């Protein structure tokens, strides 16, 4: 069962993914998300990376539809999504594989690391709009080298999806988490 912290974090994610703002996630929302990612320079339509991004996004829709669309209506509401929280720790490898594709998509210059600017674009693509990420990157960059390397990014990505600890920096990988009220 999702904690209050995870609920706040996932409500933010749910809103970002609900492209048509109808209060449900469905396959079209994940298709729209994959399309947003094609706005990144390395995710050119028709490229191998664009195909990987689309496969990852639609694969996660398939996971949701299979595991938490309990009434089989082809739509996932927030409560159904929150049920996925219990499953994600058992899907650690799938979460890490997603991080690999996202990293490749965001690493615009292919140098094997994500700069603060590349991270900002990740957050904007994630949300479909500009999001203020002031000071977030400094919390993410645990080794202080000014970049996120692939292993560092993967650890943060796993924290984002699985963590229930508000102190873990990965919770802010896709933008600041609204404060609990």
On the 0-100 scale, what is the average pLDDT?
92
The biggest beta sheet is recorded as: 2 strands, antiparallel
Distance between the termini: 19 Å
Q: Tell me the total number of β-strands.
A: 2
Q: Can you give a write-up of this model?
A:
The structure is a single chain. The longest helix is centred in the first third of the chain and has 20 residues, at 48-67. The protein contains eight helices and two strands; from the N terminus they run αααααβααβα. By secondary structure, it is mostly helical. It has one domain (4-172): EF-hand (Recoverin, domain 1, Orthogonal Bundle), CATH 1.10.238. A two-stranded antiparallel sheet has the order 1-2.
What are the defining features of this structure?
about 180 residues, mainly alpha, two-stranded antiparallel sheet, 8 helices, about 55% helix, EF_Hand_1_Ca_BS
SSE topology:
Elements: H1 4-17, H2 27-37, H3 48-67, H4 78-87, H5 92-106, E1 113-114, H6 116-127, H7 136-140, E2 148-149, H8 150-162
Antiparallel strand pairs: 1-2
Helix pairs in contact: 1-4, 2-3, 3-5, 5-8
């Amino acid at each position: 069962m999702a904690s209050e912290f995870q609920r706040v974090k996932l409500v933010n994610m749910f809103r970002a993914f609900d492209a048509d703002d109808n209060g449900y996630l469905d396959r079209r929302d994940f298709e729209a998300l994959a399309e947003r990612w094609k706005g990144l320079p390395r995710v050119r339509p028709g490229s191998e990376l664009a195909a990987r991004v689309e496969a990852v996004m639609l694969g996660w829709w398939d996971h949701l539809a299979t595991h938490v669309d309990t009434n089989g209506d082809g739509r996932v509401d927030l409560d159904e999504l929150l049920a996925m929280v219990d499953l994600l720790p058992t899907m650690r490898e799938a979460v890490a594989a997603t991080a690999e594709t996202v990293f490749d998509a965001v690493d615009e210059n292919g140098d094997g690391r994500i700069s603060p600017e590349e991270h900002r674009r990740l957050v904007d693509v994630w949300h479909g709009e500009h999001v203020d990420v002031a000071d977030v990157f400094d919390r993410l960059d645990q080794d202080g080298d000014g970049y996120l390397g692939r292993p560092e990014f993967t650890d943060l990505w796993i924290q984002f999806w699985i963590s229930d600890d508000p102190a873990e920096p990965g919770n802010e990988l896709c933008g600041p988490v609204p404060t609990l009220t």
